[in-house]
Specification:
The protein is an alpha+beta fold and 153 residues long. The protein has a domain of 104 residues: START domain (Alpha-D-Glucose-1,6-Bisphosphate, Chain A, domain 4), CATH 3.30.530. It has a seven-stranded antiparallel beta sheet with strand order 1-7-6-5-4-3-2, covered by helices on one side. It is globular, with a radius of gyration of 15 Å.
């Protein structure tokens, strides 16, 4: 196991279109499957109810760390914190960072989630495995969202 998850895809759309899918809280919520309460703002905690079947009991929370327009969007959260009987509040967070780069045919979207070494050992491997699988699916979700909701700018 590693301290970080890395994923990369190419999306046949402009950087500005992919950026909007990542940072507009309604668009993020559509592909990530979370009903977010408010727009993303650096230094604030974003919250919303997960809408993915089987996880509707989970309140998604992430502290918005970085919004560098059309380049970097990052947040910190507690990975795979889904058991309502566990208080995860004292656990360290991992950092999720999306970076965008224009390519000849669209946008390269790169995701890095780092900091798994800080997750308590008793749940680290499961959190890593679930998020690794989850990010594989979410990268496809964001691509499908952009493709089905217009390529424009």
């Amino acid at each position: 196991m590693s301290d970080r998850i890395e994923k990369e895809i190419e999306i046949p759309a402009s950087v500005s279109r992919v950026w909007r899918a990542l940072t507009d809280h309604r668009e993020f919520g559509a592909w990530f499957r979370v009903d977010l309460e408010a727009p993303f703002e650096v230094g604030r905690t974003a919250r919303g109810r997960i809408t993915h079947p089987g996880y509707e009991h989970v309140i998604w929370q992430a502290r918005i760390e970085t919004i560098e327009p059309e380049h970097t969007f990052a947040f910190s959260w507690r990975p795979y914190a889904v058991d309502p009987a566990i208080d995860y509040a004292d656990e360290p967070m991992t950092r999720v960072e999306f970076t965008l780069q224009p390519t000849a045919t669209g946008t390269r979207l790169r995701l890095v989630e780092s900091g798994f070494d800080g997750v308590p050992e008793w749940r680290r491997a499961e959190a890593f495995r679930m998020n690794d699988n989850g990010w594989t699916q979410q990268m496809q979700n964001v691509r499908q969202h952009v493709e089905s909701n217009g390529h424009g700018t």
